Amino acid sequence: MEAAVEAHPARIGLVTQLFRFVIVGGLAAVVDYGTYQMLLHLGLNHSFWVSVAKGCSFILGTTTAYLLNKRWTFNVQGSATSLAQFVLLYVTTFFVNVGMNALSLHVLPEFAWKVSVAWVIAQGSATTINFLVLRLVIWRHA
Prior knowledge:
Blueprint: H1 2-7, H2 14-41, H3 48-73, H4 80-107, H5 114-138
């Protein structure tokens, strides 16, 4: 009986999942934004290199989010299938994130917080997609 409980952990409610997702997202955002700013200050702040910096920071933030969301937010053991689905989701949102960042940097007027605002727009777009697909598709039984 106990083995069955471990094989099928208790489902966590939507409000709890959303709350935990926001906490994990905040931590992952700190990793992402901190890495992005560090890389920009190290010299990856010209045209193409801004997207490279954003890509690297997204990967580190995403890895943080995956590991914490899998076990804490959605309480799943994970399988090769969910990992493969997760990778596909994050490849998609990688391009959404980096693309929205580049588009925002292109269309926003020059002002002191332009880079940060572009990062928030990109992050918000990708985060919305991530939560919906994780909850409704990948870890729908969690």
